[in-house]
Amino acid sequence: MRIIKAALLVAAMVSGSVLADIAVVVNPANANAVSADDLSRLFLGRTSNFADGSKATPLNLAEGQPARDEFDNKVLNRSSAQLKAYWSKLVFTGKGTPPKELSDDAAVKAAVAADATAIGYISSSSVDSSVKVVASF
Fold first, then answer.
1. Residues 83-133: pLDDT tens digits?
2. In the record, which residues are listed under signal peptide (predicted)?
3. By the 8 A CB rule, do 117 and 59 touch?
4. Which of these, 9, 38, 70, 133, has the minimum number of CB atoms within 10 Å of its CB?
5. CA-based nearest residue to 71, from 5, 7, 20
6. How many structural domains does the chain have?
7. How far apart are CA 70 and CA 99, in angstroms?
């Protein structure tokens, strides 16, 4: 019985460390600092500008991507079901549009690299010189 408990404990610890760190990325030309509160306001549609007043275009990963689930939980403090309900209400009432969804890290990275207003998030392991990391979670 002890062996089984020890194996379960090790499995739980390993599965927790498998979750990738999230890197919030912007175009290298973007000089804005971004706080967790700024991210929450941007990705919940409460603002559409960076701190300096310039336009911000948030980009989401597609639903079901592990980095999306982690971002939603760690940064927005909401589950995917809560966010779906949140955006459904805003869209229905005409008060908001959710961020554009892109299929994977590579698509987010390419979009951010091509657009100085874009801000997105990817797995930390996908970061390269085409984007600038402004926050990690």
1. 999 999 999 999 999 999 999 999 999 999 999 999 999 999 999 999 999
2. 1-20
3. no
4. 9
5. 20
6. 1
7. 16
In a domain, 79, yes or no: yes
The pLDDT tens digits for 39-77 are 999 999 999 999 999 999 999 999 999 999 999 999 999
CA-based nearest residue to 19, from 60, 74, 76, 84? 74
Domain range spanning residue 73? 20-136
CATH number of domain containing 106? 3.40.190.10
Distance, first Cα to last Cα, the chain: 37
- Give this prediction's pTM: 0.84
Inter-CA distances, 88 with 44, 70, 135, Å: 12, 21, 28
